């Protein structure tokens, strides 16, 4: 298995809703990432987990809450989002030391906040 | 601070060769990636350079000069399917922080 699987692919939520994005990989990668990408912009790093521990939080608002239940799963819990949070949310994983294969990205969740 | 510069757009002809440049100024350096991203899709990994020199992978080659803060991606025998955005990304030292440049949109015409 050489994929990162993200669900759902599309999500529309209201500003008072609570929802979660899910990411799963079975490549044995011990580093997992959340990126946010707006149209025609590069991906922006949000969070990094290494060995299931949060190692980087790029000053992301608390309405985004990451969780790493085990080495294969990464969640992003969403609460009280704003319309400007509408974007493509990408999950990625990598080996911690060997970067010759880069990051493997999931196909993303396209989020619309109404 | 962190700064990664790439041209915004490039146009090339099918069958030709194109070079996409990337310059960077970052607080730390632990390697440079190139990714391809088609519209509405996730980025896919093309290459990784951590030492100076040229890395070749089929039709794609990537070059790095750490002293100049410079890299390029060379695409040979261009095909229509190579029309995409090409993202240069630099990984920081001491952690897992990889910062992406704004990307170069490549248009391949017949």
Report on the structure:
With 114 residues, chain A is an all-beta fold. Chain A is built from no helices and 11 strands. In chain A, the strands form 2 sheets. In chain A, strands 2, 4, 5, 6, 9, 10 and 11 form a 7-stranded mixed β-sheet that branches. In chain A, strand 4 and strand 5 form a beta hairpin. Chain A starts with a strand and ends with a strand. In chain A, 33% of the residues are buried. With 110 residues, chain B is mainly beta. Helix content of chain B is 0%, strand content 56%. In chain B, 35% of the residues are buried. The mean pLDDT of chain B is 93.
List the topology elements:
The complex is a heterodimer of chains A (114) and B (110).
Chain A: E1 4-7, E2 10-13, E3 18-25, E4 31-37, E5 44-50, E6 53-57, E7 64-70, E8 73-79, E9 87-94, E10 104-105, E11 109-113
Chain B: E1 3-5, E2 9-13, E3 18-25, E4 32-37, E5 44-49, E6 53-57, E7 60-65, E8 70-75, E9 84-91, E10 98-100, E11 104-109
Parallel strand pairs in B: 2-11
Antiparallel strand pairs in B: 1-3, 3-8, 4-5, 4-9, 6-7, 7-8, 9-10, 9-11
